[in-house]
Hints:
The structure holds two protein chains of two kinds. By secondary structure, chain A is mainly alpha-helical. Chain A has helices spanning 2-32, 39-55, 61-84, 92-114, 139-161, 163-173, 175-180, 185-211, 219-232, 237-257, 266-280, and strands at residues 129-132, 135-138.
Amino acid sequence: MADFMQQVVAGLASGSIYAALALALVLIHRATGVINFAQGELATLSTYIAWTLTVNHGWGYWWAFVFTLLVSFLGGAAIHQTIIRPNEKGSVLRVVIVTIGLLILVNGLVTWIWGGEVRAVESPFPSGTTEIAGVAITTADIGTIAVVLGTVAVLWALFRYTKLGLAMRAAAVNPAEARLVGVRVTWMLSLGWGLAAVLGAVAGMLAAPSVFLDPNLMAALLIYAFASAVLGGIDSPVGAVVGGLVLGVGLNLIGTYVDFVGVDLQLPVALLVILVVLLVKPTGIFGKAEVRRV
Amino acid sequence: MRPGRTLVPVVSFVVLAVVVAVLPSFVSEFRAQQLAYVAIYLIAIIGLNVLTGYTGQISLGHGAFMAVGGYTTAILMADHGVKDIWTIPLAGLVAGAAGFLFGIPALRLSGLYLALATFAVAVSMPAVLKRFEGFTGGGQGINLFGIPELTASLTPVEVLGHELAFNDWLYYLSWSIALVGYVLAWLLVRGRAGRALRAVRDSETAAQSSGVSLPRYKTLAFGVSAAYAGVAGSLFAIATTYVNPDTFPIALSILLLVGVVVGGLGSLVGLIAGAVFIQFLPTWSQQVSKSPGAPSVVSGALLIALMFVLPMGVAGLVDRLRLLTRRIYHRPSS
């Protein structure tokens, strides 16, 4: 039983990382109706920036963390302003291709600057375990869960309690009317892209210590995040977080207790989750049904 | 229909076929091999364009159908002693069936969701290939080099009185299939079926209310485009004489989409440019930088730039030039 609980907690830790990235996808999808295929690669780029600051420039981990979040925010907003916004008017395909282009571009850029080697990243959390009710939990897992939940709470408060958050929600739900009441819609959407980049950066920096840092750090993670977002409902922020946690725990348990799946087939299982949810209940657990205009 | 509507494509196609036929006499065997890969990419992106460009169904996972074709060929050759050229139609059939089957659940997915699902298929394909080791050779893959089923692998093959070394043989084989595939795709998209596919792309609701069966044409498009990918994958396996899970990475799927976009969505004329782009991009980007990341940076930047200035790719450029020349030469007489 203790072993089972340990697997659950480990699953929650990786699940919280999926949740952060899934939340980034959901934020952008709600605001601009786009799935950002480059979200994972942007997170990888952020992680490399943090790594360089700590290893090559001797910054303290948390200073580098905060600075990276700031850079990611500005980068995300800039990307929306420069390359996404001009292409939003066209077909869905056009925006998808732009984000795919961004995916390739950023992946190549990371390889260009930092090379393709796999690097170990030190965890910011002390090693060791804490015992809670007979279950030994690593400090890193607790730290990961805490940082993600903290970030999500801050974002939630921003959207729920501030005027800015209200404006951002208005811009996403009904851009035309929001504009009429004086919301600067494009800037709100850019803010959304910036916040999404911040969430991605959090996911990347927390994931790097356990899976090593290389230019393809986020490829698999992006699929898990897609699966989480789809599972929770692609337009539901709560759904993304719940979906991420459920997927993290589920995959970890299946990987541990179902020999056929093991570690190798976790990615195809995530794919299966995506397909089954889209076919059986396309709106996910928390999503609302989409109304199609003729 | 004006006679020019069919005359121009037929004449340009004949010119293309002649160029393809005589080209190996003028280039090195190494260049012939590179050009064979151009033909292989061309086959794959013709198929992808039927699905994405004409029918509007985004696939980010066509590398997975290439993998199905490639592994079909490799397994048939290595384990069942089938001669390479006979595995090509079989690979097309198996991949086509896989595409048709994937098309059925894909019916319920549109736009972004389909892109997402196909992306996930391509990303998880290597993991599946590694897991079913008994069948696919696992991470080791399947080696085809030097086995008797591989034509011209060790000794030249004689075709119509000409001795062809492996690379020249590969060139003619790939280009023959590519040209046939080109004609078949042209016949498909210019006829009744092509009109139905374009109707599905432009508005599903409108197409449906005009009596176009969405399930039939979407699964048809998936099946056809996967069959093309399967044939391309089969030739790819023959050309590299080796398959393993990393032969068909997600990068390949993305590159195919890049090729279609460069060539022009919903048009066949530009696709050769798209295929040339895929094949020679790594060589060209070497001139920008020797870094392994350079090809990705160049193709990513180009992809984004194209969406700004030329969303219809090379075909769009051809169209614009045609309009321009028409304006110059055909001044209104009255």
